[in-house]
Each structure stands twice: as C-alpha cells, then as structure tokens.
C-alpha cells in the first residue's frame, strides 16, 4: 500500500523461527522489493480440483498473452520487474485500487478481478488516516459495515475507493467504485494470514476484462514447491515503479511491474506470528500490496495461487534455492484463507 501525501507507520510484528529457511525473521512489514529479463516461466502440471479451485474466465473477444510487454525493449539495471504494457488477458484483469480525495489518489494498492464485479486485494489497503476526536489522525481499518457511512459522510470532498483495471502509463479505459466488501481483518484482529479483502464493484468489469480463478495448492508439499519452482509471477503497482530508467512508462504506480518466473518457498510454520502465510521471492515494493501471485497451468490458463501482502526482513543473509543472496523474503496470503469469499462474490 502506498500513501502519497504523508508518511505512515507500518504494522510491525515480532517474528520467530522461519522453518522454511531455518532462520529468524526480525520484523513484519507490508512490502519489499528488488527487476526479470525475459518470460521464462513454464506451466504447472497439477490437476484442477473442482471442490477447492476457482475457474478463470477469459472473454471471447480478449486474446491470451504470456508476455506482459508488447515490444522488444531490453531491461536496464538489476531490478527484475518488467513493465506491464499489454491489455491482453491475464494482464487485463489486474489493476490499481486507489482511495481518491477530490478526484486525486491519496493511497494506492493492487487488485485483481476474481468475478464479474469482484476484486481481490489486502485488508490493509482499507486503512485510512481518520480523526480520533482529539485533533489527530490515526491509521484506522475501515470496517465493512462502516464503509458506506464513511463514503456518504465525505461526499462533499468526494472520498471514494476506486478500481482501475489494466492501468498503463496512468491511463485506464474504465473504472469502478467499490460498493461493499468482505475482509479477513477487523479492527481488533489483524493476523497476517487474514490480510485479504474481496470488494464488490458497481459494474461488472470482469465481463469485459476477464477474471482470475484460483488453485488451492499445498505449499507445505515439497513436490508442489518443486513443480512450481520459478513458475510463479507477481504483478503490482509499486511506489518505486516504473523506475528512473523506465520513466517513459509513467510516474510511480502508473504502470504495473511484474516479476516473472519467481518462486514460492513454503509456508511459515505453526506457532510463528506469521504462521500459515506464504513465503516467496518475487520482487515487489509498497504499492504492490494486494498484488496477484499467479501461474500458468497445463490447461493453458492462468490462476491465482496466492495474494501478496508483505515483506519480512531476515536476521542474516541467506542463499535462496535459485542462488540469489537476500536478507529479506516476501510474503502473502494463501488461497485457502480467501477462496470462499471470492467464490461467493463470483456467483
């Protein structure tokens, strides 16, 4: 989540043993980052389970494209993210979520269409600085039942929560306002594993842009981790992207960046403050909160396999399975936590 006009304190948790890597983590924060060379991810050869998985829907008049860029530009620098310049599916189903004040974005996240009129993002993207009655503004999670009253009470200053699909260089052909939502968080319970929200739009953009289904993969299973190794993608409208070297594609958060062919490393172990959340090595940064963790499967279609939410600094530098040295890993929410809400919204 990226705030434009003021610095906000981050949500921080003490973290214990990271069983996947055999290391201690020192903090929980909302996001992290580091840019791909070319599309190299393969397809995941795992069967569709009708009891737990959701169907991807691609409109008949929208083409499928594996490539997020439609030209032959060469990546400059070490950051592994590519600018997403394609409006073909699945890229068309992803966009920027923004709190607007008098028509201007004051904070942004990333979101994905998961139904004709439903999007998936993080609960922490529903945090706003609100007055506490003592002349101070405090970051506050907006409860679903409070949301319509908040919007109505601030109609004169045009406070709105808006989704813009397939935003490229600051341009989206459509946008929709958020009507209501279901969230994993509440004001008195904000566990990282429940940092998800499914939002209802005021129009069925998914019928035009398509929407993503999901695969509920068990990332505790070493065979599944091996099958999905370097076949994972993550897209986000990060606050540091496009980078200075990619200014031709707009200001930060105006064009999405995607890390292609990254990996899920496992699940935080039971008993840890981050338990049951995904550990991944996809590049990201604040603003990419709510970004889809997705992959292509053997049916030649893309599905969500997780929801990006945060970064976790480690107590020391480690070497990941792909040979990269890092002192931070990124994290997300498993499909299991939000699939029921997404299924209800997609009906």
Which key phrases capture this entry?
mainly beta; nine-stranded mixed β-sheet; 8% helix
> Residue-averaged pLDDT, rounded?
81
Decide which structural class fits the backbone: mainly beta
Residue runs with pLDDT of under 50 for 5 or more positions: 5-39, 69-78
* CA-based shape: globular
This entry's quaternary arrangement is single chain
Number of strands: 20
Largest sheet: 9 strands, mixed
* Helix and strand element order: EEEEEEEEEHEEEHEHEEEEEEEH
Query: Which bin fits the share of residues in helices?
Result: under 10%
Radius of gyration (CA) equals 19 Å
> How large is the share of residues in beta strands?
25-35%
**Number of helical stretches of at least 4 residues:** 4
For the termini, the CA-CA separation is 28 Å
Could you give a short description of this structure?
The protein is mainly beta.
Write the layout of secondary structure elements.
Blueprint: E1 2-3, E2 17-18, E3 23-24, E4 81-83, E5 94-101, E6 104-115, E7 118-121, E8 127-131, E9 137-141, H1 147-153, E10 160-165, E11 176-183, E12 197-201, H2 206-209, E13 213-214, H3 222-227, E14 232-236, E15 257-262, E16 264-267, E17 277-280, E18 292-296, E19 302-319, E20 325-333, H4 335-346
Parallel strand pairs: 13-19
Antiparallel strand pairs: 1-6, 2-3, 4-15, 5-6, 5-10, 6-7, 7-12, 8-9, 10-11, 11-12, 14-15, 14-18, 16-17, 17-20, 18-19, 19-20
Describe this structure as you would to a colleague:
This protein is mainly beta and 347 residues long. It is 8% helix and 33% strand. It contains 4 helices and 20 strands. Strands 4, 13, 14, 15, 16, 17, 18, 19 and 20 form a 9-stranded mixed beta sheet that branches. It has a 6-stranded antiparallel beta barrel with strand order 5-6-7-12-11-10. The longest helix has 12 residues. It is globular and about 55 Å long. The two termini are 28 Å apart.
